[in-house]
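Repro case for the chain-ordering regression, as requested:
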Amino acid sequence: MGVYAVTGSYSGMGKEVVARLVEAGHRVITVDRGEADVVADLGTADGRRTAATAVLQMCAGRLDGAVLAAGIGPSPGHDRARLITQVNYFGVVELLEDWRPALAASGSSKVVVFASNSTTTVPMVPRRAIRALLQGDAEAAALPFRRLGRIGPALAYAASKIALARWVRRAAVTPAWAGAGIRLNAIAPGAVLTPLLERQLATPAEARQIRSFPVPIGGYGDPAHFAQWVLMMLSPAADFLCGSIIFVDGGSDAWFRPDAWPAPVRRRDTIGYLRRMRAFTKQR
Ligand code: NAI
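-- result from build under test --
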């Protein structure tokens, strides 16, 4: 049986994942700002360092997998946009960078990151913020949202999840991750009925927006079903899964952008494509 670290374990989908892993006989090290084995605020650099170090001590430097579910939603609030980028982006990436050697130590490990379908269904997300996050510049990432008022948090949420999904895709295929036997993937949920969504539905303005959002199959996702998706992504069935962002969103992404993906390589991208071919051959 394996040893797994799960963030966001106190509530919602993270909590369901912990229950399924324990049920399957695994040892789980939980991380949350609520009750957990490691209590830490992933919204601060100190909290992230504490969480990363404590988990490494508790697992004795060897992890079979990790699930990064801690996150905060796009509700309005003072300085909320900055906090969203801290928790949702740095609260995943910094932990995973610190845990990578422990994940590599098991020889075959799997990581599931919680992205979101806001990555493809929210317009006007500032590219500057996405770029800054990927460069690790928290201050620059927070700047574009200052002038955006009430819509700032929604755009910061989408930006944090886009940057996260890109980080997953970039890192997953490198020798440090794929080459070290670590399968790194993300799940991109639509609206799932967890405490995060319940809090939004309790605010009339947010509830109106959520209810008017196109979901072709209707209703909300069930957190227990997401735990099953995650368990599958941690299982041997996912041995060949690498750098994938799995959309489980009732069809919203397909509704908005049916032809956006899969897309053929554009003529103007051919040189870049050939460069990537060459880089891969060299790296082997
Ligand atoms: P939730 O609110 O039920 O659970 C989130 C957990 O993260 C909580 O236990 C909370 O204490 C923890 N957390 C939040 N901020 C933290 C911090 N600063 N430090 C440490 N722990 C912190 O949320 P839910 O819905 O289960 O969300 C799980 C993940 O799925 C999140 O990353 C969220 O962004 C993502 N997601 C959720 C959707 C939904 O509709 N529920 C839709 C798309 C993505």
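Ordering looks correct now. The chain has one domain: 3-283.
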